[in-house]
Amino acid sequence: MLHGGAAVKGSDVTVSGVSKSFGAFKALKDVTLSIQKGEFFSLLGPSGCGKTTLLRLIGGFEDPDAGTIEIDGRSVLGLPPDKRHCNTVFQSYALFPHLTVFENVAFPLRIRKTPRKIIDDRVMHYLSLVQLEMHAGKKPSQLSGGQKQRVAIARALINEPSILLLDEPLSALDAKLRQHMLMELDSIHDKVGITFIYVTHDQQEALSVSDRIAVMNAGEVLQVGSPRQIYENPSTEFVARFIGETNIFAMKITGKEGVHISGKVAGIGPLLVDDETDAQVGDEALATIRPEKIRISREKPQTNGGRINIMHGVVAEPIYSGFQTKYIVRLDSGMTVTVFRQHANWSEGIPDIDWKDEVYLSFSAADMVIVERRAT
Amino acid sequence: MKQRAGFLYTLPQILWLLVFFLAPLCIIIAYSFLKKGLYGGVEPQFSLEAYQAMANPSILMVAWRTLRISVIATILTILIALPCGYSIARSSNQAIRLFLVIVPFWTNFLVRIYAWIAILGNEGFINDIIRWVAPGSAGIQFLYNQWAVVLVLVYMYLPYAILPLFSTIDKFDFTLLDAARDLGATRFQSYTRVLLPNIRSGLVTAGLFTFVPIFGAYAVPLLIGGKDSYMLGNIIADQLTKTRNWPLASAISMTVTLSTTILVFLVALRKPKEQKWVFDADPSAAMSAAGGR
User: Fold this and answer.
1) Which of B173, B175, B185 is the closest to A82 by Cβ?
2) What is the pLDDT of residues A102-140, one digit of tens each?
3) Given A59, A94, A159, which is nearest B175 (Cβ)?
4) Which CATH code is given to the segment(s) B34-291?
5) CA dihedral A145, A148, A152, A157 (to 10 degrees)
6) Could you confirm whether domain A245-374 is CATH 2.40.50.100?
7) B127 Cα to chain A: minimum distance (Å)
8) Is the CB of A156 less than 8 angstroms away from the CB of B178?
9) CA–CA separation, A316 and A167 (whole Å)
10) B179: distance to nearest CA of chain A, Å?
């Protein structure tokens, strides 16, 4: 996260109108982004969305077909990787197998013919940053996945780059270790204070550490925003579906008063949505509600005149996962809706809802977001 | 029971080695310690004459020359084979390129040497062009010197170096080169500091595959070389067929075999522990390469 007070280190990156094709495959289509100094910025998207290509363009491993990339306001087009102030943590770690951990981390300094005394100090400093001082003499083949990862990070940081590029650095680790390394990355980011550009396909990773996220798909940037903005206010159906789980209703807008929108969903009936939108009465629109914002109950809840949507259905599948249960509820129309119910209030004696139970779902219009609209 | 079955499986190989490798080797060792017969052959009488004769300065000079030619030809072969193997490993149509490397093997070894005579000879292709461009000139004598021998040896053993180099470079993780560039290395530094150390086993194998057969070369210096390029292989042949000193021929053979074997073992011994045996390309290729011509 960004920390005020101390001077922000790192560089800003501006990507404008960048396109890149590999043969007939368009990896990036007219991508424009600006990344701020010291930011933890994530490029998030499914595999093949162009996020790694964009990272490789910033790192200097590929040249764009069109557009410009600027670091600190200066174009870096044509500059090879060794002339850019960014370093990369590769997905496969790319540790040099013939060198020890120490020599791997010392590699950039040896290339620059740094005096031996300084090399020793700096290498040990960065190894201690990633808690690997004890393993300096080992070969990469003797390390665990998480340790290799940390060597790769130390090696990428030792040149004191102003930007660190991370290409799915945690994808080879198991789930527990991934969580741990993620927190470590976050704390390393806090300590070194440079710009991190983090490529991942894992929305949880991106949400938990990023200052801002760019969601990408099929070579395009769909939305840039803080994790909260992206989760709470997705700008497209793809973003809504890709980040977390969601329910999407296709509706036809029948009334609009400021942010108060009422619509009709085929087979379900009226739907109330409060959202700022350009949509007009008569337009088709997609409205989304997150599963944790839906209340599930056996008795029909009271609306008390509020703008609350109530739907009736049957539990098609309850999936218990400890801290919560995920219910897949089949509405009378046949559509299924996903609901999360946290178990925080178990002591309150809420009756357990089980398979085949008839239930009511209720959710506030204010929690709904219109993600796409089609004028008719 | 099981152990005996295991022995049966190795039996063909053991027989093969006994009949075609160990037996001839024993005969050569035995001959080298016998007295030479008057018209070839040997007298059944123990003698160290052959080994004493080897100290002859003319033979030592040829041995030194053989070593020099072998080292130069091996270095040149590897310098050419390295970019070849690298480009094959990185290309998208490896199969076709590998096929092209192997194609020359379809032609007989001697025919390929004669092909070089047809190209470089005094009446050869290149001299034809020279005489056509500059009428009246006598052309250039390319053949019958050490450099012609080195050239043709490099040509002959290039595939033996390309193949093991290709096979190790193919297993190399090219992301490491990106990483090296990323960490500040120039393209050249990324090759010398990261690629070369990681393909050392391929370099060693390629070096042995070329050095060992070149050290025992016979046909190339005979047909392409002149007086200054007479090598150990030629001395051995001459001692057998012309001078008819079989013990001396055997003694030189033994020395060549022993020195190359020691070389192979030294190279194998100084390999780092975590790496496999030198011939991680194909052991049978190593044998046929060491078979010599």
Assistant:
1) B185
2) 999 999 999 999 999 999 999 999 999 888 989 999 999
3) A94
4) 1.10.3720.10
5) 110
6) yes
7) 46
8) no
9) 39
10) 6
